[in-house]
Each structure stands twice: as C-alpha cells, then as structure tokens.
Amino acid sequence: MSTTDESQRRSCVSCGLNIAGTNAAAFKCPDCGTQIYRCAKCRKQSNLYECPDCGFTGP
C-alpha cells in the first residue's frame, strides 16, 4: 500500500472528516483489530462509531 492510499483512508469513522494532521485518535477495533480513526470533535461529543469491517459499535 502506498503512502497516498494510507493517507486517503485516514478519515473519522463517525463523521468522515479527513483527520490527516489533526489531533485524532487511532486505535484498533476491540472485536476484529481493524485500525479505526476518530476526530477530536467526535471523541469529545462521544459520538457513536461503527467498525467498517465487523460492525462493532462504541461510544
């Protein structure tokens, strides 16, 4: 995977905002281990997220 492909995939899983260069969280899905990114605004507001691979949801 190229660097360009990797940076295009870095968007908030809750709102879709491109999180490149922002204060975002990156963590692995508790169920399947897929990398998930969330922007600071969605984290602060405790917006729900859903894993794109397994459907796990969390706050």
From TrEMBL:
UniProt domain Small zinc finger protein HVO-2753-like zinc-binding pocket: residue ranges: 12-55
Pfam families, per the entry: HVO_2753_ZBP
InterPro entries reported in the protein's UniProt record: HVO_2753-like, HVO_2753-like_euryarch, HVO_2753-like_ZBP
Top-level taxon in the UniProt lineage: Archaea
Protein name: Small zinc finger protein HVO-2753-like zinc-binding pocket domain-containing protein
Organism for this UniProt entry: Haloterrigena turkmenica (strain ATCC 51198 / DSM 5511 / JCM 9101 / NCIMB 13204 / VKM B-1734 / 4k) (Halococcus turkmenicus)
Source lineage: Archaea, Methanobacteriati, Methanobacteriota, Stenosarchaea group, Halobacteria
